[in-house]
Amino acid sequence: MSPLRRRLLFGTPLVVALAAGGGFYTILRRMQDDTYDPHALPSPLIGKRPPAFTLPGVSGTPGFSNTDLLAPPKPMLVNWFASWCAPCQEEVPMLQALAAAGITIWGIAYQDKPADLAAYLQQFGNPYARIATDQSGLTAINWGVYGVPETYFIDKTGIVRLRYAGALTDTVVKTQIMPLFKQYS
Amino acid sequence: MKLPRFLLALLLLPGLALAQDMVTRDGITLTQPQENRAEAIGDQLRCLVCQNESIEESSAGLAKQLRVIIRQQVVQGVPSKEIMRYMVQRYGIFVLLKPPVSPLTWLLYASPFIAMLGGFLLFWLGRRARANPVTPLSQAEQARLDELLK
Lengths: 185, 150
Prior knowledge:
The complex is a heterodimer. Chain A has helices at residues 3-32, 86-100, 114-124, 138-143, 170-184; strands spanning 54-55, 64-65, 76-81, 104-110, 130-134, 150-154, 160-165. By secondary structure, chain A is α/β, with parallel strands linked by helices. Chain A folds into two domains: 1-36; 54-184, Glutaredoxin, CATH 3.40.30.10. The longest helix of chain A has 30 residues, at 3-32. Chain B starts with a helix and ends with a helix. By secondary structure, chain B is mainly alpha-helical. In chain B, strand 1 and strand 2 (28-31) form a beta hairpin. Chain B has two domains: 1-100, Helicase, Ruva Protein, domain 3; 101-150. Classes of the chains: A alpha/beta, B mainly alpha. At the A-B interface, helix 4 of A face helix 3 and helix 4 of B.
């Protein structure tokens, strides 16, 4: 066996193991940093306008429809939530901070009862400029929503640019949401 | 002329009786063949809440709702391909338990062939190495060996 062959024979598995180790390390570190979620699914809605819907509001206030999202004066967020969803409750302070920073957030309550929803907004606060209610959950299916909370970024032309599934964290806002507001302002 | 027609109607009777055999699943009533078609569709779709179950197997609320939508469309006579397209339009190809070959998945489908190619390469390299016989000992070496083995 030539020295080159011997070196190859011993070196190749070592290189493969190192590459795999490096890959796993990167995945785990990025999961810890909140910049990678293996369960996240790409949304087919990205690059498109939300599908047609007309949903009622909560306790007498008007809801909204897809035509209200066609041309917002500035980029905005649409947040799917529910009073029965614990991560949604945890997310409220973050949404309130964003609203306080001047970001428009519209909410769609997913499969919620009006009384529960009113109590939820009373107890945890209301970061939403407008609220619609999807009691049947059929509009959610048309959006491809597969759990709450989900947050959609919509640009000034009404096109969805990002879907984030799960409660928004500091890192997600800093690395994914805010750059979009800068890019599409 | 009348008798054959009557006989023909008699032949159709069992079919009619079979068609009356209705089943109810998730609040939708449909015939057994329709239910079979709905199940065949649901078996190919991934539940998005529990990710490794099919829509048919899952007890998640969303899966139940999707089962209802599939059955409603089956009753309306929507072709299976159309129903699959309805799901993919909303949830992307991830909803398919068997993803189609696409720029994102071709490497996955090519992996068995790549592994096979790698195996052949290894086999061929090994054979080539063995094919070179060891150079026979020279006369001096042979004499030294005989000396040592004495």
